[in-house]
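Figure 2 data, in text form.
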Amino acid sequence: MARPDDSVSLSALARLGFSELSEAAASLSELAEILGSPRAEILDAAGVADPDAAVRGLLRVARRDAAPVKALLDDPVTRHRAWRVFGASEGLADFFLRHPDELTALSEPMEHLPSSIDLRARLLSSVDSVAGFAASGEDAAVVALRVAYRSSLAVIAAYDLTHADPVTVVGDVSAALADAAGAALEAALAVARTRVGEAYPKDEVAATRLAIIGMGKSGARELNYVSDVDVIFVGGTVDEEVVSEARSIDIATRLARETMRGLSGIEIEPPLWEVDAALRPEGKQGALVRSLGSHLAYYDRWAKSWEFQALLKARPLAGDDELGAEYIAAVQPKIWSSAARQDFVDSVQRMRRRVMEHIDPEDAPYQIKLGSGGLRDIEFTVQLLQLVHGLTDETLRTRGTLESLDALVEGGYIGRAEAAAFAQDYCVLRVMEHRLQLRELSRTHLMPRTPAGLRVLARATGLAETGDGIWARWESVRREVRDIHTRLFYRPLLSAVAALPEEERTLSAAQAHDRLAAIGFRDPAGALRHIGALTTGLSRKATIQRHLMPIMVRWFADGSDPDYGLIAFRRISERLGDTPWFLRMLRDSSGAAESLTRILSSSRYIGELMEWIPESVAWLDKRELLRPRGAAALDEEARAIQTRHESVGDALRAVRANRRRELLRTAMGAVLDVLTIEEIATALTEITETTIQAALRAVFREVVPAEDAALDFAVIGMGRFGGAELGFGSDADILYVYDANGVEPQRAQELATQIVTRLREHLTDHRVPLDLDADLRPEGRSGPLVRSIEAYTAYYRRWSLSWEAQALLRGRGVAGSAKLIAKFVELADSIRYPETVDQQGLREIKRIKARVEGERLPQGADPRRHLKLGPGTLSDVEWLVQLLQLQHAHAIPGLRTTSTIAALDSAVEAELVPEDAAERLSEAWRLASRLRSAITLLTGQTSDVLPADRRELDAIARLLGYPDRSATELEEDYLGVTRRSRKAFEHLFYG
């Protein structure tokens, strides 16, 4: 046994990175004894990623066959390699345990990585291939090629692990790994030909062409140590007289299956990796092998945008080189012609978002490949720039990420500094990924979650000295990748509009135009003008805008209407000028700036109001400022305004401005998800009430002289206003009532009419209309606009129709004399909550409902899309609830409410409506209400029809909290919800 000495004491082992000290000391002693070598000499190169694993692996192999281990460890150069390989990869250690004689691979000279030619020769030699046929089709041939592949993999890993700076060679290592995969496919195809030759004549198999096209990382020569190899198979015949094309496709399909089995099937030597042909036409449902003509026909007629995107990296990988070249030459033009499609870049972005959505939330912080700031973000950014600019610049039609970055720099599309940083980050992440996969030769992309795992990764990569250090490096790279994406894609847009000499511009105006069009701007030329206007000049504002504009352009592009968002931002910026707080907010509060871009690119309603109230931007800095101020505060402010102004006109002009301001506040809170639909309805109702109350106080003092002050006047809210259920753009349904209180009747009528006239005049607002709709008054539009309480009483007691009693169910005093309101409510209660139910009246209501559905719909409108009158929508729910109130409210106090949802809840409690039916009705009512408001917020116009335009529907969906591109999902949800609601309505309403 070798004598232990101080150099290999437990403390010395600890300094070398061992953690299992006693076990390591014992293993070293046994290894030294087996090899007959001093421990100190064996440990000469032990400072590796995981020395414990290294010594375990070396000992296991030495126990089986000491000679090749001794040969490696006796030589200082190969000893260094052996420790690096065994310390980084337990997977390769297991391979050498199965095949100790393959350790000789680590003794070969390693000044360079093996070339593609060398790898192909080595793998084909392993199966004794001659003229494309292996010497044997037996399982032993498959085992031989797998052993040869893993031996080659060990050589690549040894070069990688012993290099002084692995980050600088990661591109070459990835290319060698792709070449090794191509060589393995070539050897597997040779074995497959021999096997298939047992079922088909050999001359037919020899005349069958099969090209294996590498896709993704294998096509780009960016392969990992362990990765699926994405391929497409193209078949054909060398000579129709020897084998027809149809028969050659059958043979080629057998060859493809046998090739895949040779690499992925279960044998004594474990599978290498999965050969994945899912990117072929029609995916897994399509034919495994097609002729070149069949491929082209599919791409011409059926292929989706993502399929052309996948072809960006395609290259011949194995098989018939000539056929592979023909395939690439034929599909390349189609990639770029398809990139001209209007939705091509949009589909690329959508695909990236879909990938992000499918990441397990628990894995997201550890995802090197798919997570935010990971490898896929870099690849996506580079690919997006290629797609945008490669349409007109053929030099960008490259495959690999690093070579594409170089091409983008040479073409002047991105700056050298940003590209260099991006490339460095890419290489760092690839080194991390490679070391993680080498560990067990497993397909993983997740950072370690344990201190021990992080410590091993730090040593394996050489990027940090500690586990904490490698995690800090990972976080730093992620942040930089996210930032560089903005710098690479958006910041060069500024140079296109800056007053720079041509040679100093990063992008030309035409290139910037293409880039803006690609990310969703419909008027790129206009967008460039606005960007130029915002960022040109030497002022402090222009300087801040130049710093902020790249990220804001990205945020605008994420919205549903980036063109409008940008022009609205320009107008607001010009209105605010050099206002200190505005510039400070833009500079210091990225959250407020992002919220500003979000609301401007999502809502014309907000944008138009903000142009008149630009100071509202300040609310974005504090979330609480986006919450409604409440009726009491609004009333107090309105009263204060009236005391400050001498004239009614000036006072009510200020009241209208306050209304616009509070509507804007509520809209901003709605779009930024600060408020629920119930809070929005309450806020809009309180804003409208306070405005009417202030106007009525002012007008009453203006119109009614002191001698007639006994006159009482009130405004009764009806419809959704009375129910406190207003949405954006809702009319305010009202009734006007007065009580003469001793004033001469004719005089009282005249004064009341003047009050109504002046009220409507002073509340007219052309910017945000407030429509006081009195059509629900007795006799409708044919009746007097204002009546006395006595006239209302006489009419309702004698003449009122069933629909008028139904309309009163939403009646609620909102402004004016409290005493008169109480009288009116008492009158209304006697009509709307009758002690005995008028069955004829109920039948009339049902008849009217059926007629309304057919007659009041706009001509040509799809009934299913009408949010108010369509089946299962607002009117269905409200009419059902009102029918129940007319029938049962006298006996059930809970039904005596003007709120639709509160009355529906009471009906459930009283067991008048089953709970499940009420849920369906409530869901439909809420969704239709939200949609009506969303349409108004988006367009600035009111509409009761769900739009069919997909872009507009998608924008509405986003306002409702759906993910991007959810037009179809929203439409299906709405139609499903209303269909279920209609079914419940028909059962309960018509019986």
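Caption note: The CA atoms of residues 188 and 261 lie 9 Å apart.
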